[in-house]
Structures
1.
Amino acid sequence: MNSKERQIIEGLKVVCKCKNIKQRDFLKHIKAGVATIEELKKATGAGSGTCKGKGCTPRIAELLNNRALTRVSTINYTYNY
Ligand code: FES
């Protein structure tokens, strides 16, 4: 499996099960600059299902943390001399 295929499969993972909102929907907003859990919930509709965000909030936080770590590692790589 190549990285593009892996990316597509990851994007299909459901983050908010109550509303059936997939990872790719969150990543689209994160790439556009959305940077907080509350903003992501507002942009996607996540957190408004029957569990009121108990299920998806930790997964949204993980997506944001992973994105932040990616940015840090990119910065370290870029400025590593
Ligand atoms: S999993 Fe997102 S509101 Fe329940």
2.
Amino acid sequence: MPIKKNESKKIIEKGKKRELIVVKKEEINLPLDKNAICPKCGNQGAYWEAAQTRAADEPETKFYICAKCGHRWREY
Ligand SMILES: [Zn+2]
């Protein structure tokens, strides 16, 4: 039955795709800021992480990690 064969192939391809996405998310488990621009390569889109500051009255500092080149920088 050719229809059944096509169906099973589709499911396998979908499963592979889903697996790849899960692995990628585990590698970089940070939110993506689409408006952040990398100062090194100029790529728009970077992962960010809130830095822990000791002083409670200090504003929250964000660390960015470029989604393209992996450059890290800090937002003041
Ligand atoms: Zn970059």
